[in-house]
Each structure stands twice: as C-alpha cells, then as structure tokens.
Specification:
The protein is of the alpha/beta class and 364 residues long. It has a domain at 13-22 and 29-82 and 118-286: Spore Coat Polysaccharide Biosynthesis Protein SpsA, Chain A (Alpha-Beta Complex), CATH 3.90.550. Helix content is 18%, strand content 13%. It has ten helices and twelve strands. Strands 1, 3, 4, 5, 7, 8, 9 and 10 form an eight-stranded mixed β-sheet that branches. It has a two-stranded antiparallel sheet with strand order 2-12. A two-stranded antiparallel sheet has the order 6-11. α6 (246-259) packs across α7 (268-275). The protein is globular. Mean pLDDT is 76; it is low at 1-12, 20-25, 80-122 and 348-364. Residues 1-26 form the signal peptide. This is Hexosyltransferase. One of its GO terms (molecular function) is glycosyltransferase activity. Pfam families: Glyco_transf_8.
C-alpha cells in the first residue's frame, strides 16, 4: 500500500492475521497502490515512541488467506479514521443520525464518502486449528481462516485493550471510530449487531436441542434471551477475553462437535454457544450482511432497509469471484470501485478509486 509517515496513520492501525494453508508463494496476485489520504485535523496525534501501544489508535484485525487477500485489500481502502467534517463525539448507535446514501452502481463514481486507507502494521500466522474443525455445509467454511479470529487475544500485544474484528469481505462506509467507541458494560466481552428475528434454533441440530444436558439449558441464566449475531463484525474487549479464557471455551464446543454433531455451519455456532445472550448489541447499520447470498447458491441480495455503515458480502458469493466470472450482482459494482487487484491480462495497473472521484462525493 505504499510507504507512509507515522503521522499519516495517527488514530488507526490495521493488524492482519494470516491463516495460510501453506508457505508463501511467489505467484501471489499483484495489487495496485491505494490512493494516499492523510488524516484530518480531528484525528489524535500519535504518542511518540508508543507504537502499537498508542492509546489513540483504533485497532482493526482482519484474517485472510490467499483467496481472501483480494477482499482484504479492497476493504483496507475503505477503513476510515475520524474525518474533520464529522463530530467524533457522535453516538455509535444513534438512530437519529442521517441514513447513508444507497449505492447506485450505474451512476458513476463510487458511492461511499471519502476516507483514508488503513496501515498494515503486522502480519502473523494463527496457530493451527485443523484438528478441531468439523465438516460443514460448505467446504469454504472449513478453512482455518474462519477460526483465526478465536486467537486474536493470544496474537495481539497485551497492551492492546480492544479490537474491531472485520471479515475480509466487507466495505466500511462510515467512520470506524464510531464503532470503536461502542460502550462495553462490565458484563460484556463482545459487541456486535444482533438479529432478533432470525430463527436461532436452526443454527443447531435436533440432537443438540433434544439432549437433556444441552439444548435450552446451555443458554439459561444469560443476560438476556439468546439471539443470532454475525461474527463478521465484532468489537472485542481483549483483556476480558483473556481473563475469561474464551478461546478455550469456544474450542471445548468444537471438541464436543467432534463427538456429537450439534451444529452444521462452521465457525459461527461455537461463538453463538459461548456469547449468544451475552453480547452488547450494536446498531444493524454496522453489518449489512448477507450480500453474498446464502451458503449454497450465493444468489444476489439487496441491502436491508435502514442506514448503512458497513456492507458485508457474507454467504457463498464473493464480489471478486462474481466479477471475474462476468456474473456480478448489482452491489458488487460498489465493491469493484475499491478493488486494487491487477489481473494477469491487465495492460495497466489498477489504481483504486481516484482522488477526483472520491473528492466529488459529499460527506454526509
């Protein structure tokens, strides 16, 4: 993404965790350099010599493997720090804030407001988890990548108090500092958008619900009723995570799954078993998920009703795959505006969204 002075990245740091199935290859894809943007006057100045321990930094963690590298590169061009035109004191989940403008894929320049690219400060390999992974409804859900987020608290420096975890198939179209400032009460370790109308029971097998020791007993006594939440966007208190040994709690459920099949859907159910009913709810605008369609067909889906702060291509269909196949969904064109990938047959490198195009947008 090009060299940058430390001052350029004040207020925001991106930590990438690499979950690779093999050694790095010389044949990795090429990517163009993202446009350079500098932080606005409202961003805090860095603490000299503090490095990653700077208390003014926003820590964003993304996990990736070779297939998701392209998605991560596009997402990293959309992580924004506090723009000077917006008040940093605004509430993260206030329903009174104006709704984001909807994308119009055929109307010219990229839809989201101007932002600055994130800095990639470190790349580390997640510990192996292959022995704990069970078969899922889709082979991609069995990749170790999906489980790397369980190890964030072990891999990140202990001076980092919290992190925003984002999947690699997202575009943040709002100031992520608002998400970062989500209040986590003492009883909560994770904050995420919660979906109360989803059929929570379908995330577990009949064998789970029929077991007298499992089933509803697992969720008894929690802060509130258990609901589905999507793990692709989470604010995690890393200190509380470590104290509560939450990685081990998740892995105990994975071990039980090996003995008795209690769920079908990869890495999500163990998170639900540990955190459903215990998380702090975040406004739905921070995870407009499901844009990749379902986990079998990957059909096109529109945005949900309501404001948009983050678009998430969860599901089988990834925008880069559909674009390469010549069968994109309408919203994939919005993602394409931030794609830095240089194809094998490209005669000239892509340069990502142009400054003129971004600067022509009106910040909302």
């Amino acid at each position: 993404m090009g060299a940058a002075s430390p001052a350029m990245w004040a207020g925001l740091v991106l930590v990438v965790l690499l979950a690779a199935s093999g050694p790095a290859s010389a044949g990795l894809p090429r990517f163009a350099e993202a446009p350079e943007y500098r932080n606005g006057d409202g961003c805090p100045a860095p603490v000299t010599g503090a490095g990653v321990c700077d208390p003014g930094l926003v820590h964003i963690a993304m996990t990736l493997d070779a297939h998701y590298l392209r998605g991560s590169m596009a997402a990293s061009t959309r992580c924004s720090s506090t723009p000077p035109a917006r008040s940093p004191s605004s509430s993260t989940s206030s329903p009174r804030r104006a709704a984001a403008r909807r994308p119009s894929p055929s109307s010219g320049p990229p839809w989201p407001p101007p932002s600055r690219p994130c800095a990639s400060r470190s790349t580390r390999s997640a510990p192996p988890v292959a022995g704990l992974i069970s078969a899922s409804v889709r082979a991609a859900l069995e990749a170790p990548l999906n489980y790397a987020r369980n190890h964030l608290a072990d891999l990140l420096p202990r001076c980092v108090p919290r992190a925003i975890y984002l999947d690699s198939d997202v575009l943040a179209v709002d100031d992520v500092r608002r998400l970062w400032e989500t209040r986590l009460p003492a009883a909560a370790v994770v904050a995420a958008p919660e979906y109360c109308h989803a059929n929570f029971s379908r995330y577990f097998t009949e064998a789970f619900w029929d077991d007298p020791v499992l089933g509803a007993r697992v969720f008894a006594g929690r802060r509130r009723a258990p609901f589905y939440f999507n793990t692709g966007v989470m604010v995690i208190d890393l200190r509380r995570w470590r104290v509560g040994n939450y990685r081990q709690r998740i892995e105990r459920w994975m071990e039980m799954q090996k003995e008795k099949r209690i769920y079908e859907l990869g890495s999500l159910p163990p998170f639900l078993l540990v955190f459903a009913g215990e998380i702090e709810a975040v406004d739905h605008r921070w995870n407009q998920h499901g844009l990749g369609g379902d986990n079998v067909f990957g059909s096109c889906r529109p945005l949900h009703n309501g404001p948009v702060s983050l678009m998430h291509w969860s599901g089988k269909g990834k925008p880069w795959d559909r674009l390469d196949a010549g069968k994109p969904c309408p919203l994939d064109h919005t993602w394409k505006s931030y794609d830095l990938y240089i194809g094998e047959n490209d005669s000239s490198p892509a340069s990502g969204p142009s400054r003129s195009a971004l600067s022509s947008l009106v910040a909302w």
